[in-house]
């Protein structure tokens, strides 16, 4: 599996040089390009490719199943034993997060390997890296076994352009098949506070069992002292063990029951608490000392018999009561970390960090790591505030509003390395309505989309930063799929920035758009306003509108309006239309467009009257991309146009 280290073009050996000034980025971009968008976080991001190293640079590369494609900014640094990378700290720092990858074990299950962390002349400390939560393989829902044959040999696959089980002779499929989810991250409190300008070194010891260690980035921050809540139901008084040696689930239950009777908060002091099941919450406030200081950690536990919801495992998580039992209300969770133990994707399992139905509630300032989904809410429920959380290294979604979630807000959250949609609203059976996804950052979802909206009424996606989706998804998707209720009322998509988006759709063998409208289950005809978005460095298209081939003559996409949009770099087109329908454009400026401004295939009938998709020019569309000869519905269909790599984005 070491061959994937070079999985991008432009690998080169870099000689060590004196420490360079720090280069601080946001989603591997100059912060000036994303001002006012994305989450306001407490850490500063530094990409390893800008640091000092005697290792090997990998990338840039956007081809799925390579380490470069899943790296932030599509570049990283690979270290052999004995090599290092050095970062100059840009501000006072007492804590770091390292995003890295090390190889899997030959038969799966992961390995552990040391990384030496030192600042200046201080003695090095050891951060023990692991790949136990990384490295998935094969077809959905994936496998931890790199040696396994196809999970679904009766599915069509791109690799042979065939259905292997129905093909003679049977095609040879390379193993491991489709390796992905390579990265993980770890946090470390450094102890002393180091001033700006200090040099922090990450070094792989000469005797490391890992033949390579890829460092993607370093996040550095100044963590505040532990928060103390003196008047509260302190879980230590109810028998909780802050060393993590004994299970504290029962103590948590007792503290919650006491707090409800006495109208007190529950306080989780600094420590690591072992909890191997759901903690049920209702009418309670639970506060930790800060998510660096209070850690609730648990193993995934196999159930003797499946639970009523279909789960075959349980694990650490804070759950409201199910909506069928009336749900929970007035629950407020803040200031602690949830560290799970989820290493495989089993869709029926409820092994999420936070779940159930929580109305008139809030989740603030949590760190959610190694659960299946960070926050999965099954409604109906209303008035939930999800704010200021860090959601990383999930096997599936970062957050999902599933079924009848209304009048709720997701704001200022940071999501990285989700195994499915970063943030999603899924109106299955019951529509979501009146929700806002605002000022969040979503980086490197390894499958599917950064932000996805599946049906619903009067929802808003605004001021978010989404970067580096890897495959079969976009930065933003508007999808009539997965049995979702229709889009009704309006959908506002405003002032978002996407970077290096527009991925390869594995099953269709085509490139997607940074924003992707998809009519699969029904037409999309609600009032959709896309205003003020910036689509930067798009791999393929900036905008794609598509109906799946079997339904292309039944469903259309209409009533979509783009205004005050900027497209800085598109590998193929500004707009790709593969559906019947229409859209309007006003003040949409584009530059560095690779092939043609509009790739208009309509519904692929190529009629003498032109495409079944029409574009309306409302004026101010600069850059020559929406030329008069393209209007209203000139056929310009190129099913798989060549890609012209755009230059890096810059100030407009």
Walk me through this protein's architecture.
This protein is mainly β and 652 residues long. The protein has 2 domains: 43-136 and 179-221, Galactose-binding domain-like (Jelly Rolls); 270-630, Pectate Lyase C-like, CATH 2.160.20.10. Helices cover 3% and strands 39% of the residues. The protein is built from 2 helices and 56 strands. The protein has a 24-stranded parallel β-sheet that branches. The radius of gyration is 24 Å and the shape is globular.
Quick rundown:
It holds the Pfam family CatAgl_D1. This is Pectate lyase superfamily protein. By secondary structure, the chain is mainly β.
Strand and helix layout:
Blueprint: E1 12-13, E2 43-47, E3 52-53, E4 56-58, H1 67-70, E5 76-79, E6 84-88, E7 93-101, E8 112-119, E9 125-130, E10 184-194, E11 199-203, E12 213-221, E13 233-234, H2 249-262, E14 266-268, E15 271-274, E16 278-280, E17 284-288, E18 294-297, E19 301-302, E20 313-314, E21 317-319, E22 328-329, E23 331-334, E24 337-339, E25 354-356, E26 358-359, E27 361-364, E28 367-369, E29 375-378, E30 381-382, E31 384-387, E32 390-392, E33 399-402, E34 405-406, E35 409-411, E36 414-416, E37 423-426, E38 436-438, E39 441-443, E40 451-454, E41 456-462, E42 465-467, E43 476-480, E44 487-494, E45 497-499, E46 504-505, E47 510-511, E48 513-519, E49 527-531, E50 534-538, E51 541-547, E52 556-570, E53 575-578, E54 580-593, E55 598-600, E56 613-617
Parallel strand pairs: 13-14, 14-17, 15-18, 16-21, 17-23, 18-24, 21-25, 22-26, 23-27, 24-28, 25-29, 27-31, 28-32, 29-33, 30-34, 31-35, 32-36, 33-37, 35-38, 36-39, 37-40, 38-41, 39-42, 40-43, 41-44, 42-45, 43-48, 44-49, 45-50, 48-51, 49-52, 50-52, 51-53, 52-54, 53-55, 54-56
Antiparallel strand pairs: 1-4, 2-12, 3-6, 4-5, 5-12, 6-11, 7-10, 7-12, 8-9, 8-11, 19-20, 46-47
Domain CBM6/CBM35/CBM36-like: 44-223
GO molecular function, one term: lyase activity
Protein name: Pectate lyase superfamily protein
């Amino acid at each position: 599996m070491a061959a994937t280290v070079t999985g991008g073009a432009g690998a080169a050996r870099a000689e060590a040089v004196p420490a360079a000034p720090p280069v601080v980025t946001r989603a591997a971009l100059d912060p000036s390009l994303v001002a006012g968008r994305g989450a306001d976080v407490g850490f500063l991001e530094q990409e390893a490719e800008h640091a000092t190293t005697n290792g090997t640079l990998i990338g840039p590369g956007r081809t799925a199943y390579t380490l470069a494609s899943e790296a932030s900014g599509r570049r990283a640094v690979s270290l052999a034993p004995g090599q290092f990378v050095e970062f100059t700290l840009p501000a006072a720092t007492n804590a770091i997060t390292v995003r890295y990858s090390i190889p899997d074990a030959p038969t799966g299950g992961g390995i552990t390997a040391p990384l030496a962390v030192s600042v200046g002349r201080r003695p090095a400390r050891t951060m023990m890296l692991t790949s136990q939560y990384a490295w998935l393989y094969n077809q959905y829902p994936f496998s931890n076994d790199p040696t396994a044959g196809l999970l679904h040999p009766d599915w069509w696959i791109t690799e042979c352009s065939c259905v292997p089980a129905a093909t003679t002779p049977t095609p040879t499929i390379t193993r491991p098949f489709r390796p992905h989810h390579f990265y993980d991250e770890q946090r470390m409190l450094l102890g002393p506070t180091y001033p700006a300008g200090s040099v922090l070194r990450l070094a792989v010891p000469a005797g490391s069992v890992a033949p390579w260690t890829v460092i993607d980035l370093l996040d550095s921050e100044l963590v505040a002292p532990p928060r103390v809540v003196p008047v509260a139901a302190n879980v230590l008084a109810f028998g909780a063990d802050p060393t993590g040696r004994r299970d504290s689930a029962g103590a948590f239950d007792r503290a919650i029951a006491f707090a409800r009777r006495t109208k007190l908060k529950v306080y989780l002091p600094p420590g690591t608490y072992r909890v191997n099941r759901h903690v049920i919450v209702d009418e309670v406030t639970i506060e930790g000392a800060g998510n660096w200081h209070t850690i609730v950690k648990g193993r995934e536990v196999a159930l003797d018999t499946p639970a009523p919801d279909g789960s075959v495992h349980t694990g650490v998580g804070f759950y409201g009561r199910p909506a069928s039992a009336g749900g929970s209300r007035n629950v407020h969770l803040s200031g602690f970390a949830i560290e799970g133990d989820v290493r495989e994707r089993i869709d029926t399992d409820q092994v999420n960090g936070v779940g159930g139905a929580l109305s008139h509630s809030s989740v603030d300032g949590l760190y959610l790591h190694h659960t299946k989904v960070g926050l999965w809410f099954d409604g109906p429920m209303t008035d939930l505030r999800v704010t200021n959380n860090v959601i990383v290294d999930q096997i599936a979604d970062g957050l999902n509003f599933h079924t009848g979630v209304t009048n709720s807000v997701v704001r200022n959250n940071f999501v990285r390395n989700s195994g499915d949609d970063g943030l999603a609203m899924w109106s299955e059976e019951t529509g979501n309505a009146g929700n806002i996804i605002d000022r969040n950052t979503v980086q490197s979802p390894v499958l599917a989309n950064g932000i996805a909206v599946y049906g619903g009424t009067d929802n808003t996606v605004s001021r978010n930063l989404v970067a580096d989706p890897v495959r079969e998804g976009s930065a933003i998707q508007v999808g009539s799929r997965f049995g979702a209720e229709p889009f009704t009322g309006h959908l506002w998509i405003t002032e978002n920035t996407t970077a290096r988006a527009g991925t390869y759709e594995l099953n269709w063998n085509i490139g997607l758009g940074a924003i992707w409208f998809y009519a699969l289950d029904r037409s999309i005809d609600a009032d959709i306003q896309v205003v003020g978005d910036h689509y930067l460095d798009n791999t393929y298209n900036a905008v794609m509108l598509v109906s799946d081939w079997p339904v292309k003559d039944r469903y259309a996409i209409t009533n979509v309006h783009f205004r005050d949009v900027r497209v800085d770099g598109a590998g193929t087109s500004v707009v790709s239309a593969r559906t019947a329908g229409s859209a309007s454009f006003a003040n949409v400026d584009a530059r560095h467009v690779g092939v043609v401004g509009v790739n208009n295939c309509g519904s692929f009938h190529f009629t003498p009257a032109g495409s079944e998709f029409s574009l309306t020019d409302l004026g101010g569309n600069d850059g020559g991309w929406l030329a008069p000869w393209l209007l209203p519905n000139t056929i310009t269909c190129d099913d798989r146009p060549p890609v012209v790599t755009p230059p890096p984005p810059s100030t407009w």
